Amino acid sequence: MKLGEYKEKYRTYRKGKKSLLVLEGIHAVKHAFRFGAEFEEILYVDEGEIKSFADNVLKEEDKNFILKKAKKIEKDFFNELIPYRTRSKIIALVKKPKYEINEIDNDKPIIFLEDPANPENIGMTIRVAAAFGAGAVIVSGHINSFSASVIRAGAGLIFALPVFLIDKKSDLFTLFKNREFIVSDAEGKSIKQTKINKKSVIIFGTEREGVSQFLKDKSNAIIKLDMQKNVSSLNLATSVSAVLYGANWN
């Protein structure tokens, strides 16, 4: 396949709307292997880097797979496939995971992001949600959570827990009618003074807009993170990690 055909293929799959997803960099590829992603194509530049990665990071069966499956390309060719510079010169195509609502662990909280404005924030939220034991991440809005930018920011951990996109926020209350709904907002009650059921949907808004009044009105409780005076907000992913790690779970 010629460079132009490769560029068009990766440009198409970077959007996250097709059956294949783009992984960029060692961390994304590593976590995709660890959580069972199905690889279609792996491209790399440096033989020493790919061998070190296989020897030091991967299980034996994955090591054998990548050494047989991966294809070496020139650095200039690689740089044409990614719209920014990366430290590790590896890129891959994997099958998009197919998640179902009934796969979500009932004993783990669900994180809902209302109309996030930044793909990196979504990716970093998925990363901390996976680290701190969330059952799923659900996102509304215009950004595709399976885009290459989100996957890169999330270090490939989109394969570690179910991730869903929804069009209508009202669907939350139909899909998860047996769960409590908790809003994270500066107007709420201190997280230190609130018991939170693990079987909850915890709702986060953007730094600028916060959570919509519609979701506040439909929720069971509003909580806040206790911060120092004159500090008004946190980055979205930081807020999610603080709630998941610091909540008084019931």
Work out the helix count.
10
CATH class of the largest domain: Alpha Beta
Please give the domain count: 2
Oligomer: single chain
Side by side, the strands of the main sheet go: 7-6-5-10-8-11
Number of strands: 12
Gyration radius, in Å: 20 Å
Structural class: alpha/beta
**Proportion of helical residues:** 25-40%
CATH superfamily grouping of the largest domain: SPOUT methyltransferase, trefoil knot domain
Cα(first) to Cα(last) distance is: 56 Å
**Per DSSP, what share of the residues sits in E-state strands of 2 or more residues?**
15-25%
Give the topology.
Blueprint lengths: L2 H12 L5 E5 L1 H9 L4 E6 L2 H10 L3 H10 L1 E2 L2 H7 L8 E6 L14 E4 L5 H13 L4 E5 L7 H6 L9 E4 L4 H5 L4 E11 L4 E2 L3 E5 L8 H6 L2 E4 L11 H11 L1 E2 L1
Parallel strand pairs: 2-3, 5-6, 5-10, 6-7, 8-10, 8-11, 9-12
Antiparallel strand pairs: 1-4, 2-4
Can you tell me about this structure?
The chain folds into two domains: 3-95, Ribosomal protein L30/S12 (60s Ribosomal Protein L30, Chain: A); 101-249, Alpha/beta knot (3-Layer(aba) Sandwich), CATH 3.40.1280.10. 36% of the residues lie in helices and 22% in strands. The chain has helices at 3-14, 26-34, 47-56, 60-69, 75-81, 119-131, 148-153, 171-175, 213-218, 236-246; strands at 20-24, 39-44, 71-72, 90-95, 110-113, 136-140, 163-166, 180-190, 195-196, 200-204, 221-224, 248-249. Helix 3 runs antiparallel to helix 4 (60-69) and helix 6 (119-131) runs parallel beside helix 10. The chain is elongated, with a radius of gyration of 20 Å.
